[in-house]
Amino acid sequence: MTAHPPRSRVRSERLETRVTADQKNLIEHAAALQGRTVTDFVLTSVQEAARRAIEEHQRFDLSVRDSRAFVNALVNPEPVNDRLRDTVRRYRQATGT
Fold first, then answer.
1. How sure is the predictor about 3, in pLDDT bands with cuts at 50, 70 and 90?
2. Under 8 Å between Cβ of 41 and 34
3. Cα angle, residue 28 at apex, residues 22 and 34 outer, rounded to 5°
4. Are the C-beta atoms of 51 and 66 separated by less than 8 Å?
5. For the domain that residue 24 is a member of, what is the CATH number?
6. Could you give the 3-state DSSP secondary structure of residue 51?
7. How many CB atoms are closer than 10 A to CB 28?
8. 5 in a domain, yes or no?
9. What's the number of domains the chain is made of?
10. pLDDT per position as a tens digit, 21-78
11. Burial letters for 35-56: b for 16+ Cβ neighbours within 10 Å, e otherwise?
């Protein structure tokens, strides 16, 4: 029985790009300095950049959503409930206000 690597680890897709001679030399030099192949260097660098781009987008999206929720809470506040009244009462007792 032969073990197969998980599908996500099988490199069956291909990306291609055209670069200038200067760009290729720069990438090859950087890869060599790190003791990696050009493919490994490029793939790792692109994955890191992609993750950062996704995280930045998610932070921005969350920030916009949170901002809208905050403004909505200010414009349309929830009615005061018993728990909040009790908390305010205990605070006033503790602080003497």
1. low
2. yes
3. 140
4. no
5. 1.20.5.780
6. helix
7. 13
8. no
9. 1
10. 999 999 999 999 999 999 999 999 999 999 999 999 988 887 888 889 999 999 999 8
11. eeeeeebbeeeeeeeeeeeeee
Distance CA(27)–CA(36), nearest Å, equals 11
45 within some domain: yes
Q: Is residue 8 part of a domain?
A: no
Structural domain boundaries, residue 27: 17-95
Angle 61-63-68 from CA coordinates, rounded to 5°: 100
Burial class (CB in 10 A: 0-12, 13-18, 19+), 18: exposed
* 12 in any annotated domain: no
Give the rounded distance of the alpha carbon of 35 from its chain centre.
Answer: 28
pLDDT beyond 60 at 2: no
Q: What is the pTM of this model?
A: 0.55
